[in-house]
Specification:
The complex is a heterodimer. Chain A is an alpha/beta fold. Helix content of chain A is 37%, strand content 12%. Chain A is built from 15 helices and 11 strands. Chain B is mostly helical. In chain B, strands 1-2 form a two-stranded antiparallel sheet. The chains are: A alpha/beta, B mainly alpha.
Chain lengths: 483, 95
């Protein structure tokens, strides 16, 4: 049963071969069976079974929609009313959200059944899921490896077939990199396409939610529900939402795919290089045309990102003060002591490090030299992409320089960890959509590639990914533990 | 560039973080390495480039000046560490 996709379960529910309650029970068992992966922070058994029962009732009354009764999980960054929303931080270990994130409401209204909240790097800061207050997540392909981050729990759970689909968020690669490390499909939509309301903020000009699934088809189905304008999000895009499944079967004949030669040089693992080369041949057979392009400012991407994301992080996380909600230090001597100790005792070291970087670059005397300079560099990076899209429809790039690394391999060296985000972070700074799909293996570990498109080109990205998945089987491979 | 322990302490104070001696030492060297990475931006010619703070250079969207939220003080204060009579409690600020 675990090899089915979300689209398969839709059919089985529609034809009444299975009930929503049976489906929820099955996946709750999967969650229990694979508890050692630590991919979940909270399991919502009671709520899920109630929702599933309700879904079955709706179906019996002929009122079921396309997603009624489909089980899934939310990354624990989305506020869920009445259910713990921790962001994997000690700071919010006791936080029961008083309201729902917009996408939580939207997916619930569609009749979807939330089985739990997935593990992640604390406040979505990390590339390995080792920065969680609730412990690290294991990669289902190799328990000694990281699943990637920050949406590591979602990626591991979908890859291990613990759940058919999950939500993630991507500030610098946090959907695509774990999707690559775990061998699944992960879409980071255009900035503003999915509401950020109720999604705990890390870097507000970069954060974007998206679906994590086995296939591009499933991602399209979920994006149909997740996308859309939200007056509660001041940067939400007020543009119509197309049916993302409508163009999946378009031919790729004549589609122009950009390749940046420097991305495939030293620094890229040879197995990933080879897997992408083979994928290029497949895409050519499907009618795509490859065009060499250049992103001349790409070497600015990592430093620019770590200045801007950290600045926004330090500002966003200033709200955690031990006064209104969240962790509060015991017996504070005075107000300053309350602030300082609540924050120091409850934030993990990566979060503190980024708050420190951000505070530094925003502080008097350094603001122009670092923060403004980085914002100027950000425009250079974004303009590079706009120039490239004059010549190509999408860009094909590796998602990560290497396959999943070993647990603890990079956790002592922040710079080394940051450098592993080389292929993903510029996309966020330009606000572009990008999708990771599996494209092969390096030994026993899956590897991924990403297609990057211009603003609001999600349909095109999903079309290309779907066509590729129609003639390849990488996305169907599941880790042994899931069988 | 080098970052001294005193600078780390100053930044920590601005960020309202109380760091242990070990953390201060570790952050001094880690921040130094991170800012070495950042020097590549410093060496980039950016004169006349408009800083980009948002992917679409969006303007703040305004809504009509009407009350849209209901009073949810009780719900919001239920999750607070300490409240009394609808107020948040903090250590005494004024003697």
């Amino acid at each position: 049963m675990t090899h089915y996709t979300l689209a398969d379960y839709q059919q089985q529910l529609a034809s009444k071969d299975i009930s929503s309650v049976e489906l929820a029970q099955f996946f709750l068992q999967q969650m229990a069976k694979h508890a050692h992966l630590n991919s979940f922070i909270t399991v919502c058994e009671q709520e899920a079974l109630l929702q599933a029962k309700h879904a079955d009732e709706l179906r019996a009354q002929g009122k079921a929609g396309p997603l009624t009764g489909i089980p899934f999980a939310h990354k624990d960054i989305f506020c869920t009313k009445g259910i713990k929303t921790s962001c994997a931080s000690k700071m919010l270990d006791n936080f029961i959200a008083p309201y729902n994130a917009t996408i939580v409401d939207k997916m619930a209204s569609a009749g979807m059944v939330m089985l739990g909240k997935t593990n992640m790097d604390e406040f979505a800061m990390g590339s390995s899921n080792e920065n969680s207050f609730y412990g690290k997540v294991h990669n289902p392909w190799d328990l000694n490896c990281v699943p990637g981050g920050s949406s590591g729990g979602s990626a591991a759970a979908v890859a291990a077939r613990i759940i058919p689909a999950a939500t993630g968020t991507d500030t610098g690669g946090s959907i695509r990199q774990p999707a690559a490390f775990c061998g699944i499909t992960g879409l980071k939509p255009t900035y503003g396409r999915i509401s950020r309301y109720g999604m705990i903020a890390f870097a507000s000009s970069l954060d974007q939610a998206g679906p994590m699934t086995q296939t591009a088809f499933d991602a399209a189905i979920l994006l149909n529900v997740m996308a859309g304008f939200d007056p509660k999000d001041s940067t939400s895009l007020d543009t119509p939402v197309p049916d993302y499944t409508a163009n999946l079967n378009d031919s790729l004949k004549g589609v122009r795919i950009g390749i940046i030669p420097s991305f495939f040089g030293q620094g890229l693992h040879p197995d990933i290089n080879e897997a992408i080369n083979k994928s290029k041949t497949v895409l050519e057979q499907l009618g795509a045309v490859f065009v060499e392009i250049d992103l001349p400012h790409h070497d600015l991407a990592i430093p620019t990102y770590y200045v801007i994301a950290s600045a926004e992080c330090s500002s966003n996380l200033a709200r955690y003060d031990g006064v209104r909600y969240g962790y509060r230090a015991k017996n504070p001597e005075n107000l300053l002591d309350l602030y300082q100790r609540s924050r120091s005792e409850a934030f993990g070291s990566e979060v503190k490090r980024r708050i420190m970087i951000g505070t530094y670059v925003l502080s008097s005397g350094y603001y122009d030299a670092y923060y403004i300079k980085a914002q100027q560099a950000r425009r250079l990076l974004a303009e590079d992409y706009q120039n490239a899209f004059k010549y190509v429809d999408v860009i094909l790039s590796p998602t990560t320089p290497d396959p999943a690394f070993k647990i603890a391999e990079k956790s002592d060296d922040p710079v080394k960890m940051y450098l592993s985000d080389i292929y993903t972070i510029a996309v966020n700074m330009a606000g572009l959509p990008a999708i990771n799909i599996p494209c092969g293996f390096s030994g026993h570990l899956p590897v991924g590639m990403q297609f990057i498109g211009n603003h609001l080109s999600e349909s095109k990205l999903l079309n290309i990914a779907h066509q590729f998945q129609q003639v390849t089987s990488h996305h169907q491979k599941a880790p042994e533990i899931s069988l | 560039m080098s970052i001294t322990n005193d600078e780390v302490k100053k930044i920590a104070h601005l960020a309202r973080l109380a760091l242990s001696t070990d953390e201060t030492n570790a952050f001094a060297s880690q921040l130094e390495n991170i800012f070495k990475l950042v020097t590549v931006i410093q060496n980039t010619h950016t004169d006349g480039i408009r800083p980009m703070s948002h992917p679409f250079d969006a303007k703040q969207r305004l809504r009509k000046d009407m009350v849209t939220e209901s009073n949810e003080r009780d719900i919001m204060q239920k999750i607070a560490p300490a409240t009394e009579l609808g107020l948040y409690l903090v250590p005494q600020v004024i003697e």
